[in-house]
Specification:
Elements (H helix, E strand, L loop, with lengths): L3 H5 L7 H12 L5 H18 L6 H5 L4
Length: 65
């Protein structure tokens, strides 16, 4: 059974470059060392942003002002 979208020829367009990149991503699933390092860096940044942490020694510096 065909849908109305298929009947009218309204499929989504993907460029040849998008098709190539999707196929490349499928065949290269393992991350490189630099990709893993970047992921860990941003996990730390997101953790610091999203969760409260106890005050540190550097926070005491600003109490004098």
């Amino acid at each position: 059974m065909t849908t109305i979208r298929e009947f009218l020829g309204l499929q989504y367009y993907t460029s040849p470059l998008d098709d190539f990149l999707a196929a490349f991503d499928e065949s290269h699933r393992t991350l490189s060392a630099s990709q893993r390092k970047e992921i860990e860096k941003y996990r730390r940044i997101y953790d610091l942003r999203d969760h409260t942490h106890a005050a540190t020694e550097t926070d005491k510096l600003w109490e004098k002002f």
